């Protein structure tokens, strides 16, 4: 026997569903994907990054949103919730609910074991299609390792990686040198976590 075809949601159906739901879900190609909860390290890293960015951007025409701001990647149709998102200039939203941002300038994702492959692969590919995006950070939570994607003048992307607390990350889109030590402030790494040089 063949199974019944699965109902595929439209973006409008997803948004109606999502706005009434208790838990966050991503949406892509008609399907809804539940998002897992976050660990202590994950939450600390997000809080540290938001604090650093907010302080730097306090008197600038930029806004910092933590993980409850939904982002639509218009170029591919993915709806997602970055751990941190910054928009500079006038924010653009999908509709009058003002809860789905269309033009992020900077996106930060903190990896977990369950999402690492997705965040480094398909999700990064989605983000790099966003014409407004200039910087994309992928942060490990169990070891000191950060990948920084930067949009190049020709529209392509360069990548730099950081694995020392003494490093600083140059976020040219917002004119800020973000210290790796501040990102990992009070974060405790598992004793068994491999360093980047061992990976």
How does this structure look, described?
By secondary structure, this protein is an alpha+beta fold. It contains five helices and 13 strands. The protein has helices spanning 11-20, 40-57, 116-120, 122-127, 180-183; strands at 25-28, 31-34, 62-65, 70-73, 78-80, 84-88, 100-101, 106-110, 135-139, 146-151, 157-162, 168-171, 176-179. It has a six-stranded mixed beta sheet with strand order 3-6-8-9-10-11, covered by helices on one side. A hairpin with a 4-residue loop joins strand 12 and strand 13. The longest helix has 18 residues, at 40-57. Mean pLDDT is 91; it is low at 1-5 and 194-199.
Précis, in short:
With 199 residues, the protein is an alpha+beta fold. Helices cover 22% and strands 28% of the residues.
Low-confidence stretches: 1-5, 194-199
Strand content: 25-35%
**What order do the helices and strands follow?**
HEEHEEEEEEHHEEEEEH
Morphology call: globular
How many strands in all?
13
Count of runs of 4 or more consecutive helical residues: 5
The averaged pLDDT comes out at 91
Q: What helical percentage do the residues reach?
A: 10-25%
Structural class: alpha+beta
- Report the span from N to C terminus: 47 Å
**Sheet having the most strands:** 6 strands, mixed
Question: For the largest beta sheet, what order do the strands appear in spatially?
Answer: 3-6-8-9-10-11
Question: For the CA atoms, what is the radius of gyration?
Answer: 17 Å
Topology of this protein?
Elements: H1 11-20, E1 25-28, E2 31-34, H2 40-57, E3 62-65, E4 70-73, E5 78-80, E6 84-88, E7 100-101, E8 106-110, H3 116-120, H4 122-127, E9 135-139, E10 146-151, E11 157-162, E12 168-171, E13 176-179, H5 180-183
Parallel strand pairs: 4-7, 8-9
Antiparallel strand pairs: 1-2, 3-6, 4-5, 6-8, 9-10, 10-11, 12-13
């Amino acid at each position: 026997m063949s199974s019944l075809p699965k109902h595929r949601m439209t973006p409008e159906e997803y948004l109606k569903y999502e706005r009434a739901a208790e838990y966050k879900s991503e949406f892509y190609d008609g399907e809804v994907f539940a998002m897992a909860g976050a660990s202590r390290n994950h939450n600390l890293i997000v809080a540290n990054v938001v604090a650093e960015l907010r302080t730097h951007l306090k008197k600038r025409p930029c806004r910092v949103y933590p993980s409850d701001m939904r982002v639509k990647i218009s170029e591919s149709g993915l709806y997602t919730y970055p751990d941190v998102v910054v928009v500079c200039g006038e924010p653009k939203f999908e509709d009058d609910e003002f809860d789905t941002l269309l033009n992020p300038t900077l996106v930060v994702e903190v990896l977990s074991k369950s999402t690492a492959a997705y965040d480094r692969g398909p999700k990064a590919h989605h983000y790099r299609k966003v014409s407004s995006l200039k910087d994309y950070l992928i942060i490990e939570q169990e070891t000191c390792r950060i990948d920084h994607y930067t949009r190049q003048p020709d529209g392509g992307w360069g990548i730099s990686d950081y694995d020392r607390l003494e490093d600083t990350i140059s976020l040219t889109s917002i004119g800020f040198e973000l210290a790796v030590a501040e990102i990992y402030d009070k974060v405790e790494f598992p004793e068994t976590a491999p360093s980047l040089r061992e990976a």
